[in-house]
Each structure stands twice: as structure tokens, then as C-alpha cells.
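Lab notebook, bench 4. Still working through the backlog of constructs that have no structural model yet. Next entry is a single chain of 274 residues. Request: give me the C-alpha cells for it.
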Amino acid sequence: MITGNTLLIAHIGYPTFAFKSPMIYNPYFEQAGIDAVVVPMGCQAPDYPAFLRAVFTLTNIRGALITMPHKVTTVGLLDEVSPTARIAGACNAVRRDGNGRLQGDLFDGEGFVRGIRRKGLDPRGKSALVVGSGGVGSAIAASLARAGVAALGLFDLRERAAEGLGARLREHYPALRVNTGSNDPSGYDLIVNATPMGMNEGDPLPMDMNRISPGSFVGEVVMRTEMTAFLQAARARGCRIQVGSDMLYEQIPAYLEYFGLPGTSAEQLRALAA
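Model written out:
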């Protein structure tokens, strides 16, 4: 039931038909008795800068979820942006502080890190290989750096993308060891596929799976199916794994905390969405 006291969370992007957040957040709000609602708002790129400012003039708005094609543009529209969002060059959450300033952060990588921690892998002091330096790969790399990994390997077929990400990471985390140019997974504690490989049947694997140690933890971002060919190969090697959808469900509690709303667990959200 929407009331005159209902808090709004705008979900801004275009097109809206693929938005999943309303079907995850709103059942949780109803079940938990939270007077808030996520509302999909279709906004095309030319209108977005003015619209973002306008929507935050509403007195009952609590925050905004930002999705494609606006994540990159958002970074330059805000008064304050987290180091994670600056490193990744994208932002998917916006809120207004007590002084009316717009603040932004990025939670894709935070969801990934929360997931591996819940499964028993503390990234602090570990080494990680992130294959793919696009939006989601950059977010995961930035969050792993914030979580205290000691060394990061970055690989992308577009070499400049990996090198640029590496330079931004070194700027914000001078003690972090960053290497680019190789997707050899040998010797890494954590290995992440942050490429679209696995979205389609017959896609090549993003690395030589025979080079992965059975003691490595392997994570995926592709959500087309829970057990992608990449994860099946990693499990066959004896590795612990994290499926792509875990990143989605694990980041939602982080969003709720950012917006000052009561938190929940990934398990509860999965149960409500089932």
C-alpha cells in the first residue's frame, strides 16, 4: 500500500522492461513492513542530467538506483563520488545528504565481495585475477582493492582498458601490486570471470582452466544460467565457486544500508523472489 508517507527509490535507466529490482525490493519492503517503494523510471540519455537533479528535489525521495545507459554519466553529475566509483568510472547508487549534496557509490563489486566473504574467503592479503576490465570488472577490482587484496592481475582483450584500470587502482591504492596483460590463472587465490563469455552457448572459456589450482576460489558474473561452462570447469578442478546471481542478491543489502533502510540477507531476498 503506497501512502502519503511512502519513501521513493527511483530506478532510473532505459529501457525499463528488463528491470529486475522492483521485483526484488518491493516484495521485501512489503514483507518487512517498510513504507518504501522502488519505482522504475524510463529516462533516455539526453534528458538524464536534468532529470536526475529534478528527481532529487522531491521531498520523499530516499535514493536512486542507476542502471544502463547512465552509470558512467552519473559520475560527472554528482557533488561527491566514492573512490570505488571513481576507479570504476561508473556509479549505480545516488543519495542526497543533509545539506542537499548528491553523493554516489557503486555496489556491483561490493556485492561480489560480500558473497565471497559469506562463503568463507576473506580477500585481505590475497591475490586475485579479474578477467575483463569493463564496467563490472572494474567495479569488482575496485571493491577487491578496498577489501585489502595484496595483488591484482587485470586482463582485457582491449589492453588499454586493463592498463587504464590498473593506473587508477595504483593512484588510489599505492601499496597494491597490479599487473596487466595476462589471463594466466596459475597461482591466484581468487579468479573472476568479468567478461560476457558464457552468455551464449559455445562461447570460449575466458582462460586456460587447466592452469587453475584446485585451491583457488572462482567467481562468475554471467547470470544467464547458474552453472556456466566456466563454473562447471572450475568445479571439476575442485575449486570453490560463486555464481553470477550471488553478486546481484548480495549487493542489495549494501544498497539498503546506503539509503538508511533496514537491511536483510541475500538468502531472504532469494526466497522472496522465488
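Notes after review: The domain at 7-106 is CATH 3.40.50.10860 (Rossmann fold). The longest strand covers residues 7-13. Flag for follow-up if needed.
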